[in-house]
């Protein structure tokens, strides 16, 4: 993903996704929380959770996305969010594991 780009904010009703960063720094907005991930870190997106992948860095980011079931045809646009608060922003996996169904560790993936 090139620097300064982002996908449209959206959700999936059926697909569960796992994003794994291969290279660079990746930002994921997930349910009004920001998660900044670097190479070797991952983030699970549960069905129904609004999210947006972003590259807020000055370098390319490479990542792998696994969707089960496949997310094709299961994508609904979500409205933009204005509810970001500094205390809701997390770097890496800090704070993310406090939310049910979200685990940025790689337990069971390596």
UniProtKB/TrEMBL annotation:
InterPro entries: Cupin_2, GPI/OXD, RmlC-like_jellyroll, RmlC_Cupin_sf. The keyword Translocase does not apply. GO terms for molecular function: metal ion binding. Residues 1-66 form the Cupin type-2 domain. Keywords: Metal-binding. It comes from the Bacteria. Residues 67-110 are annotated as: Disordered. The keyword Plastid does not apply. This is Cupin domain-containing protein. It comes from Silvibacterium dinghuense.
């Amino acid at each position: 993903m090139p620097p300064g780009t982002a996908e449209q904010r959206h959700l999936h009703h059926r697909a569960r996704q796992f994003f794994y960063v291969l290279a660079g720094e990746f930002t994921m907005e997930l349910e009004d929380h920001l998660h900044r991930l670097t190479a070797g870190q991952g983030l699970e997106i549960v069905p129904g959770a609004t999210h947006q992948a972003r590259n807020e860095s000055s370098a390319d980011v490479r990542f792998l996305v696994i969707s089960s079931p496949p997310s094709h045809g299961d994508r609904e646009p979500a409205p933009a969010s204005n509810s970001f608060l500094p205390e809701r922003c997390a770097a890496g996996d800090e704070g993310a594991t406090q939310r049910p169904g979200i685990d940025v560790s790689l337990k069971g993936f390596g």
